[in-house]
Amino acid sequence: MELPSTIEFVIPGTPHPWRAPQVVTLKNGQRIAHKEKAELQWKDTVRAEARAAGVKYQDDGPMGTYVLVVYPRPRSWPKKTRLTREPKITRPDSDNILKGIQDALQGIACRDDGQFYSSHIERVWGEPGESAHVLVRIVYGPLWPIPQPSGIEKDANRPF
Which of 28-37, 78-87, 106-115 has the lowest mean pLDDT? Predict the structure, then answer.
């Protein structure tokens, strides 16, 4: 069995999570949706780092993502009493960070972010002195052979 191809890249800085667009109603009744400037800048950074790493475009087919988000350790923490890479369980939510990264990769790595059928994300506090960054690994192709269900006969009248 052929192993899927992978590519990794690092995005410096703290990630900006995905948020729903802000909707503004003008005096004439027209509604306009817009995104925060920081979120748009974050997506531009993700795209630039992906291009610099040589991420290849895949028009169709399954893809997976593994994301490691490292936050700087608070200075108030004692240096010896904390574990290295301790899980970060405060906001922003993991799913919003992942959604922002996958949205930014549309048109760079894939046609549509629906191609990401498998995703894994971890948020951790960095080691003392480690700066904030995000490691992204993209896996092209299925991660393992997808088994066919047993005991189910194919029927032309069923869509699945």
Answer: 78-87
Triad 72, 135, 73: Cα angle to 5° = 10
Domain ranges of the chain: 5-17+33-140
- Domain 5-17+33-140: assigned CATH number: 3.30.1330.70
Q: Are 23 and 31 in contact (CB under 8 A)?
A: yes
Strands 116-125 and 5-12, bridge-based pairing: unpaired
Contact 94, 41 (CB under 8 A): no
Longest dimension (CA), the chain: 65
Q: Considering the entire predicted model, what is its pTM?
A: 0.78
Q: What is the pLDDT of residues 86-113, one digit of tens each?
A: 889 888 889 999 999 999 999 999 999 8
Average of per-residue pLDDT across 67-74: 91
List the end-to-end C-alpha distance of the chain, in Å, as a whole number.
26
Q: Alpha-carbon distance 83 to 119, whole Å?
A: 25
DSSP state of 126: P
- Which residues lie below 8 Å from residue 33, measured CB to CB, with a gap of 6+? 21, 22, 23, 24
Would you say residue 128 has pLDDT above 90?
no
